[in-house]
Specification:
By secondary structure, the chain is mostly helical. The N and C termini lie far apart (92 Å). The protein is built from 10 helices and no strands.
């Protein structure tokens, strides 16, 4: 033992110690981001000429519908971002959820997530006959694949991510949850940047479609 002593070194595979409960709270925060899309949908619906007096006045004010849409989305984004920050602060301070000590980057993720949510809301808001409550159902369904509903849901989410990764990457709530997950466990910021980039690309596509739909709306009378 004196001549052949072997020294050992403890290695960590992740930035922080694994926290089983963190995944649940990340998925819950992602579902919350999906829910706040109702703010954007309701606000954009009110800008339609036949939906409210505000929309009627905006339609005859000579302001382009693209500018009205962008202003509405940005204003809704501020409201949605504030809501998500409150939820994040509660988890961080009261519940003591571990976010890897990267609170500043978490706020960036929340800003990107709320912007995507408002873009999705804008798409629904420019679709006549669609209720804003649809986001509750969509968020609940997509949350199945983020592991929100217990161990069975987590196993399903892991199986889908392993065997059908494209489906996971197309799920915006998975991208939101994964952005926080990557901040907690990964040394590199590349996975975080990829999730945020994917959400921004989805946001741009949704805003483009919403703007096109809004420009094509025509009314015989108000």
């Amino acid at each position: 033992f004196q001549t052949d002593a072997v020294s050992t070194t403890r290695l960590k595979l992740t930035r922080t110690d694994p926290d089983p409960s963190a995944r649940y709270f990340y998925a819950l925060l992602a579902m919350t981001a999906g829910m706040v899309a109702m703010i954007g949908a309701f606000a954009v619906q009110r800008t339609r000429a036949n939906a409210s007096p505000v929309g009627a006045r905006a339609s005859i004010a000579g302001i382009s519908r693209g500018k009205v849409l962008m202003a509405t989305v940005l204003a809704s984004w501020l409201c949605g971002f504030a809501c998500l920050v409150v939820a994040f602060a509660y988890m961080r301070v009261v519940v003591k959820v571990d976010f890897g000590g990267r609170d500043g980057l978490c706020l960036v993720a929340l800003a990107v997530s709320s912007l995507f949510a408002m873009a999705a809301g804008a798409l629904v808001g420019t679709t006549p006959g669609v209720k804003t409550g649809i986001f509750s159902a969509i968020a609940c369904v997509l949350s199945i694949f983020t592991g929100l509903y217990g161990s069975a849901s987590q196993r399903l989410a892991d199986d889908v991510a392993a065997n059908l990764p494209m489906l996971s990457h197309l799920n915006p709530l998975w991208q939101i949850a994964h952005s926080f997950f990557s901040l907690l466990y990964y040394d590199s910021l590349e996975p975080f940047a990829q999730s945020c980039g994917t959400l921004l690309a989805m946001t741009a596509a949704l805003v483009a479609v919403a703007a096109l739909r809004m420009r094509r709306q025509r009314y015989e009378h108000l």
